[in-house]
Design brief:
This protein has about 425 residues and is mostly helical. It has one domain: Up-down Bundle (Growth Hormone, Chain: A), CATH 1.20.1250. It has helices spanning about 15-40, 40-50, 55-70, 70-85, 90-110, 110-115, 120-150, 155-160, 160-185, 185-190, 195-210, 220-225, 235-240, 240-260, 265-275, 280-305, 310-330, 335-355, 355-360, 370-385, 390-400, 405-420, 425-430. The longest helix is centred in the first third of the chain and has 31 residues, at about 120-150. The relative contact order is 0.16.
Length: about 425
């Protein structure tokens, strides 16, 4: 154990809580940086893609958003392997450094009018760097939170991964609301104000870096590292677990698509389809996220009592039966209150996936490939279904068949439901308990 950080078993409850909070805040900043792009796309799209109408410009920015997702599997592989070989803490520090660099690059890149095609090229480069960061962040954070928590409260504490995920998205929307309503005119936001959130994100990442340097390593990793096991973080070793890999991909497919549909895409849907003003759409989206955020620890704690599988099945059934009628009704929402109620209903259903998916994945894999096993198949699946959600939705709309997207979401959730019915309840068979 020489040279290794003190394991979590030696921690007092207060110290354990401090480590979880430090990891959570870092995760919050990472996701704020990631979502700031989506939140401010309505304003900076013309700066980088000046040609075409609003839908065409949003398609271009959504394509770049999807590009960031394409490298998330690479980030999940590289940082997951790094976390399994060198520690969860070391990987989380590296992840937040990469996110800082990506946000800073977006903040300082001139527009198309100044440097031509170099502007969208630099935007793509920044999103690639952020994609690598987020790709590695999820698997390592999920592993860290699940390992550092006690067995009795593992679902509750790991649910904070999505609390901070949502907090990051909410913070990005809050910054947008403050700029929209009190600090800047629409002209200023379009001209230069959209750069402010990325400056905030870069500075916040530096603060998260300081916090993460004070985190302790988990007992599971520290004990296994002391054994000298050379299998840690190897892709070949991960491939010895094909059923677990398939389970992660299957349970993620419908959940991530539903999550991105009712969170990230909703702001644009309310503007581009329902017909709300930009600031009203932002306010409705932000309010719905507050309710969604508060549900995560409640559902996570429930999973510690009744198991993970019943909650996943409930999401799968409700999502399969309810997506098309809910989205169809939302199209013709008569005002912000009706829209808010419908979105909150959808997010309550999505909580059955979002609150516990991290702990379920971590409980599937042995310690030597846990971060890699959680991060890599998850990142691949999110890239294919979550990262393309906006683009697919806008493509259906531009093709004049917006309802086709609703059926696409329904089909993906139905496929995940089959996995939920087939998989074991990881609360009872957790590999973390065997470390």
């Amino acid at each position: 154990m020489s040279g290794l950080p003190r394991p979590e078993s030696a921690l007092s409850p207060a110290a354990r809580l401090r480590s979880i909070v430090s990891g959570s805040i870092g995760n919050l900043i990472e996701w704020y940086d990631w979502y700031a792009y989506a939140a401010f796309a309505l304003y900076f799209a013309p700066a980088f893609f000046p040609e075409g109408d609003l839908t065409a410009q949003l398609l271009s920015t959504a394509a770049v958003f999807a590009v960031g997702f394409l490298v998330r599997p690479l980030g999940g592989w590289l940082l997951g392997a790094y976390a399994d070989r060198h520690g969860r803490k070391a990987a989380l520090v590296l992840s937040v450094l990469m996110m800082c660099g990506g946000s800073l690059l977006i903040a300082i890149t001139p527009g198309y009018a100044s440097i031509g095609v170099a502007a969208p090229a630099l935007l793509v480069a920044a999103r690639l760097l952020q994609g690598l960061s987020v790709g590695g962040e999820y698997g390592t954070s999920a592993t860290y939170m699940s390992e550092v928590a006690t067995r009795e409260w593992r679902g509750f504490w790991s649910s904070w991964l999505y609390v901070t995920n949502i907090c990051g998205q909410l913070l990005a929307l809050l910054v947008l609301i403050v700029l929209q309503r009190w600090l800047l005119t629409p002209e200023q936001l379009h001209a230069w104000g959209w750069r402010i959130p990325f400056v905030i994100g870069a500075l916040g990442a530096l603060g998260a870096l300081w916090l993460r340097r004070t985190m302790v390593e988990t007992e599971s990793f520290a004990r296994h590292a002391a054994s000298g096991d050379r299998r840690r973080g190897r892709l070949r070793e991960l491939l010895r677990h094909p059923r677990e890999l398939a389970t992660v991909a299957g349970l993620t497919m419908g959940g991530t698509l539903a999550f991105y549909t009712f969170t990230v895409y909703m702001q644009k849907f309310l503007v581009n389809t329902v017909g709300f003003a930009k600031d009203l759409a932002t306010l409705v989206s932000a309010t719905s996220l507050v309710g969604f955020m508060l549900l995560q620890p409640l559902v996570g704690a429930l999973s510690d009592r009744i198991g993970r599988r019943p909650i996943l099945v409930a999401f799968g059934v409700a999502g399969t039966l309810g997506t098309v009628p809910l989205m169809s009704r939302l199209e013709s929402a008569q005002g912000p209150w009706e829209a808010l109620a419908l979105i909150l209903l959808a997010l309550a259903v999505v909580s059955g996936y979002s609150s516990i998916n991290a702990v379920v994945k971590a409980e599937l894999f042995p310690v030597e490939v846990r971060a890699l096993g959680v991060g890599l198949p998850y990142a691949i699946t999110v890239s294919l279904f979550g990262g393309t959600a906006e683009y697919v939705a806008l493509w259906f709309k531009q093709a004049g068949n917006e309802a086709g997207f609703y059926w696409y979401v329904t089909a993906c959730i139905a496929c995940s439901l089959l996995v939920y019915l087939w998989m074991p309840d990881t609360r009872r068979s957790s590999r973390i308990d065997r470390d």
